[in-house]
Design a protein that fits this description.
- The longest helix is centred in the middle third of the chain and has 14 residues, at 50-63.
- Strands 1, 2, 3 and 4 form a four-stranded antiparallel beta sheet that branches.
- This protein has one helix spanning 50-63; strands at 4-6, 10-17, 20-31, 34-42.
- The protein is 14% helix and 32% strand.
- The termini are far apart.
- The chain has one domain (4-73).
């Protein structure tokens, strides 16, 4: 089993899926010395549930260490190449600097 840790997390976003509000909980984490982040979707944004959701994140990483996301994948910034880090590579509608 890999060496895994998950630190305290916080709600970093929300979205509506089929009429239900889901909250993104983002946690700093590490797997075998590699540091990154993991995001867990949950229907609650109650801070009292953070330890339970953090445990869910730990279980996810123990079962599949590849779920650890790199820090740059979570920055949400447009690096000017027409994509936003962490998306599927589609055009974000921004100016990629190639046009006149």
């Amino acid at each position: 089993m890999p060496s895994v840790w998950v630190g305290p997390g916080k709600v970093t976003g929300q979205e509506q899926i089929d009429g239900t509000t889901w909250y993104s909980w983002t946690f700093p984490a590490g797997v075998d010395g590699q540091v990154g982040l993991i995001t867990i979707m949950d229907q609650s944004n109650d801070p009292a549930l953070e330890p339970t959701i953090r445990n869910d994140a730990l279980e996810v990483l123990q079962a599949d260490p590849s779920k650890l996301e790199g820090l740059a994948d979570n920055d949400g910034d447009d690096d000017g190449d027409g994509t936003v880090a962490g998306n599927d590579g589609g055009d974000d509608g921004g100016d990629d600097g190639d046009s006149a």
